[in-house]
Amino acid sequence: MNLFKAKKEEEYIAEKKEDEEASIVSFSSIPDDVIVNILARISKSHYRSLCLVSKNFNSLLSSPDIYFVRSLIGNTEARFYVRLWVRTPSSGHRHRWFTLGYRQGQLTLVLVRALSSSYSPDRLNSTTVAVHSEIYQIGGSNENKPTRAVRVLDCRSHTWRSAPDMKVARKHAMSYFLDEKIYVIGGCKKTKEKMSWGEVFDLKTQTWKPLPKPPSNDNYVDGAVFGGRLYVFTINNEKYAYDPTEESWVQEAGFEGLEGITGPWCIMGSLIFAEYHRMYVGYDASNGKWLMVHGLDEVHTKRTKNSRTIQLVNHGGKLVIIWDVWHMCPREHKSIWCAVISLEERLTQSGNILLGKVERCNVVLDLVHKSYKLSSCQSVLV
């Protein structure tokens, strides 16, 4: 009886195993486009681990197809890039690219190691601008001479490619992205050349053309893209807006109160965020009023008298603040800090207030030489 029962159990187990094996589809038989469609819906934070599953996974996660699908289904994520001018043992100083990541609950700068050296530029005084999933590095100085060169960093594959050169060599220029066009202003000596003041790069046609100069002889000190138009500000507080459809400038009377802002600032929605008297504030361009950002006690506590705000960046709808702190001991050294803040505008009985929630706030580079310089920060979608 026991032998009969044991035999029946063995037969049952064998049949069950056959059924399970028959029901399991070999993963290798699934078409790549189906796998890509599945992987594109997973957060990129898991990609590093998924690359270890198989060679095919690693290949698919590195291909442009997965980023095309992510964009198609609207599953892109903001990634923060930092370019630092750093000291190296072999070549003195050079630029290094980092991404802002998280490690053990802390913000950290992760060196981008996989950059292709084919077009990797190492130019001082260049301007950078984020365009979808790419960063354009424009102009700069090569052996102390301005250059017309334009290089593009693909933030999906971390490779460089060349783009058409500008018509005029520039360094210390300003660049802005609006309606699939890149606007580059200044950065060259005043000449009679038609394109010396500024030029526009059309992404569709891959061509440069002149940008007309606003009707002012003042020097232009800053600019911004706001409300579908490009704004520039002169040293005497004149404001001009460029309408891409009309291809013309008009003088604006708005933005009253921005004259006192001398440090970095950024635009988030309808507000302009800046530092004012060592406090962070938001400027409402519709009514010209300033709103203090509440809830940033942790940031203010960690900023000392020897600190200086370097960058304010709109990172996927969150405010990123980067500042440095100079040290007396050891001398000629500094630390670089970073804070990521989510924001909420709330209506109260006394009016609108801005509430900030500090998600992360810590040092990302500690006790580095004073020659370390943050050249640019860009937030891109990948």
Automatic annotation (TrEMBL):
Gene3D superfamilies found in the cross-reference section: Kelch-type beta propeller
Domain of life: Eukaryota
Chain segments annotated as coiled-coil in the UniProt record: none
Sequence ranges assigned to domain F-box in this UniProt record: 24-71
Pfam families assigned: F-box, Kelch_FKB95
PROSITE patterns: FBOX (PS50181)
Protein name, UniProt field: F-box domain-containing protein
Species lineage: Eukaryota, Viridiplantae, Streptophyta, Embryophyta, Tracheophyta
